[in-house]
């Protein structure tokens, strides 16, 4: 078999169900359903992060009530809407119809997930809006390691809300990047990257949805290059991490017209199906 005749790698897809990425993740999964062998769904309220109340308290102390609104729209509303719906979400339906194992992931580096990853035969891990960091030992299980999809022009805007931090700049620079997974947040070698134009005034929530959607063809291209042996990795020194913004930063963003959530984001969250 020649290098170019190699079949696509078997994939383990890891995600955090959220309005920010649900549509993009479902689109990616549908495109690569024949390669999917495992889907891992992170629990944002898992015990080792303090649970729902512990996380809410940390966000409130650091960022104030506006951040709780952002999280409610992107995390809680789609969960409520999905629970009230009689139909499974597109990713859930795809796994059911394709007999693909879908499992909750409390600890991506714990024995339960590691065993599932080994048993699945996955050759490559794909993290797509996933909130846990894989250790070197976990990344060593699939022979091709892992890649991550991130909604920014790395190495700029590493972290959980890159659309907000990009909007703070004098000349906002939005984009999407596919990079190698390493045991450090958004710091691996860049495989594919593209700038994306977003209108001024785009909320951080809307930016997340639009940039994740824009990343789907980039992820497909990265997988093609990996399968054919054409992948080129560009090392970039990581820039400072951009965390959840604090109260002062949020006030500055509001002064500049940067919103975390707009009316359209609430409607999108209610339509999302996880």
Keywords:
274 residues, alpha/beta, Rossmann fold, seven-stranded mixed sheet
Task: Explain what this protein looks like in three dimensions.
The protein is α/β, with parallel strands linked by helices. It has one domain: Rossmann fold (3-Layer(aba) Sandwich). The chain contains 10 helices and 7 strands. Strands 3-2-1-4-5-6-7 form a 7-stranded mixed beta sheet, with helices on both faces. Helix 2 packs antiparallel against helix 3 (65-84), helix 3 (65-84) packs parallel to helix 10 (263-271) and helix 7 packs across helix 8 (204-228). The radius of gyration is 18 Å and the shape is globular. The model has no long low-confidence stretch (mean pLDDT 94). This is Formyl transferase. Keywords: Transferase. Residues 111-211 form the Formyl transferase N-terminal domain.
Radius of gyration: 18 Å
Low-confidence segments, given as residue ranges, are none
Q: What is the percent of helical residues?
A: 40-55%
CATH architecture: 3-Layer(aba) Sandwich
CATH superfamily: Formyl transferase, N-terminal domain
Mean pLDDT: 94
Number of domains: 1
The termini sit apart by 39 Å
Structural class: alpha/beta
Count of β-strands: 7
CATH class: Alpha Beta
Strand content: 5-15%
- Widest sheet: strand ordering: 3-2-1-4-5-6-7
What is the number of helices? 10
Shape: globular
CATH topology: Rossmann fold
Protein name: Formyl transferase
Keywords: Transferase
Domain Formyl transferase N-terminal: 111-211
GO molecular function, one term: methionyl-tRNA formyltransferase activity
């Amino acid at each position: 078999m020649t290098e170019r005749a190699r079949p696509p790698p078997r994939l383990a897809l890891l995600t955090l169900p959220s309005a920010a990425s649900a549509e993009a993740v479902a689109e990616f999964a549908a495109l690569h359903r024949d390669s999917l062998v495992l889907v891992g769904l992170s629990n944002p309220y898992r015990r080792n992060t303090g649970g729902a109340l512990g996380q809410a308290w940390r966000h409130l102390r650091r960022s104030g009530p506006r951040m709780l609104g952002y999280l409610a729209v992107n995390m809680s509303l789609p969960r409520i809407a999905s629970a009230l719906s009689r139909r499974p979400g597109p990713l859930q339906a795809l796994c059911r119809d394709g007999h693909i194992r879908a499992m909750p992931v409390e600890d991506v580096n714990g024995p339960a997930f590691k065993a599932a990853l080994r048993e699945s035969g996955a050759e490559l891990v794909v993290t797509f809006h996933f909130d846990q960091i894989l250790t070197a030992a976990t990344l060593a299980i699939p022979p091709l390691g892992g890649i991550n999809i991130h909604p920014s022009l790395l190495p700029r805007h590493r972290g959980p809300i890159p659309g907000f931090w990009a909007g703070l700049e004098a000349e906002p620079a939005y984009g999407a990047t596919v990079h190698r997974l390493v045991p450090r947040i958004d710091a691996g070698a860049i495989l594919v990257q593209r700038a994306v134009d977003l209108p001024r005034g785009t909320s951080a929530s809307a930016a997340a949805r639009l940039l994740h959607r824009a990343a789907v063809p980039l992820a497909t291209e990265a997988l093609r290059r990996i399968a054919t042996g054409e992948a080129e990795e560009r090392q970039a020194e990581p820039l400072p991490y951009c965390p959840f913004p604090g109260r002062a930063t949020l006030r500055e963003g509001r002064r500049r017209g940067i919103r975390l959530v707009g009316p359209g984001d609430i409607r999108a969250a209610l339509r999302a199906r996880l």
